[in-house]
Specification:
With about 90 residues, this protein is an alpha/beta fold. The chain has a single domain, classed as Rossmann fold. The protein contains three helices and three strands; from the N terminus they run H-E-H-E-H-E. The protein has a three-stranded parallel beta sheet, covered by helices on one side. Helix 2 links the parallel strand 1 and strand 2.
């Protein structure tokens, strides 16, 4: 199994392709606590050559604390045909 970072770096070299990442979280990235992790996530992508608006599109969905919304929001991201879905969930 290949580490995600290696796979993303290899694909970053393909010109013309806009990669779509579905981001499914419990807390909107505008929340100060979530914003820290969101910034780190975007910075890690940028370090690997993924730039929003150039070769990367991010589709964000949030449950806003209602865990029962995960299945419907995940299905929505699947229907958008994103290349990968990242789930960020706060554990209690």
């Amino acid at each position: 199994m290949w580490p995600l970072g290696l796979l993303l770096s290899a694909h970053a070299q393909q010109l013309g392709k806009v990669w779509r990442i579905g981001y499914l979280g419990s807390t909107p990235t505008t929340n100060p606590d979530a914003a820290i992790y969101w910034a780190a996530f975007k910075n890690a992508l940028q370090e690997r050559g993924y730039i929003v608006g150039r070769n990367l599109a991010l589709e964000q969905r949030f449950t806003e604390g209602m865990a029962d919304r995960y299945p419907a929001l995940a299905a929505e991201l699947v229907n958008l045909k994103v290349d990968v879905i990242v789930v960020a969930r706060r554990m209690r």
